[in-house]
């Protein structure tokens, strides 16, 4: 992967490495901070936010702001996957992010645009719930 030639520090490399290794989920500044601390390179949250803003600006990371009350989440943009054309499912139990390519939902997207004059950005649309693995684990725990 090509890295930008701007300001590179060990912390920035570790932060980017964490985002790449966790590209299948949304992560937040607290999780990144805990990882960096565990790796022996603690970084202040203001610095993490600054680095994330730079990565968002250069198009390597996508920022998700959901309700204005909770902190933003971030996700590395995998160049081999296009997140602009599909919706996402996020498990509230394990945090897994599922890329959802579903013709039925694209139909909803088209319906809303045609009948309600509103265009949804699928890359920013996340449905929250419980993934099949966590549902199975709950079922197993009850047995």
Please provide a written account of the structure:
- This protein has 143 residues and is of the alpha+beta class.
- It folds into two domains: 1-79, Arc Repressor Mutant, subunit A; 82-143, Dna Ligase, domain 1, CATH 3.30.1490.
- Helices cover 42% and strands 15% of the residues.
- It has five helices and five strands; from the N terminus they run αααββββαβα.
- It has helices spanning 10-21, 29-38, 45-57, 103-116, 132-142; strands at 61-64, 73-76, 87-91, 97-100, 126-129.
- The strands form two sheets. Strands 4-3-5 form a three-stranded mixed β-sheet, with no helix packed on it. A two-stranded antiparallel sheet has the order 1-2.
- A hairpin with an 8-residue loop joins strand 1 (61-64) and strand 2 (73-76).
- The longest helix has 14 residues, at 103-116.
- The N and C termini lie far apart (46 Å).
- Mean pLDDT is 82; it is low at 1-7.
């Amino acid at each position: 992967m090509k890295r930008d030639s701007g300001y590179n520090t060990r912390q920035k490399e570790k932060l980017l490495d964490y985002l790449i290794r966790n590209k299948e989920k949304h992560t937040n500044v607290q999780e990144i901070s805990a990882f960096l601390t565990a790796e022996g390179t603690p970084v202040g949250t203001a610095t993490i936010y600054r680095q994330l803003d730079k990565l968002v600006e250069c198009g390597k990371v996508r920022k998700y702001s959901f309700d204005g009350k909770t902190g933003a989440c971030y996700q590395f943009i995998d160049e081999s996957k296009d997140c602009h054309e599909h919706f996402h499912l996020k498990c509230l139990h394990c945090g897994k992010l599922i890329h959802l390519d579903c013709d039925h939902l694209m139909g909803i997207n088209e319906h809303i645009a045609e009948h309600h004059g509103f265009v949804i950005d699928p890359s920013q649309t996340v449905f929250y719930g419980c993934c099949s693995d966590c549902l199975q684990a709950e079922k197993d725990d009850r047995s």
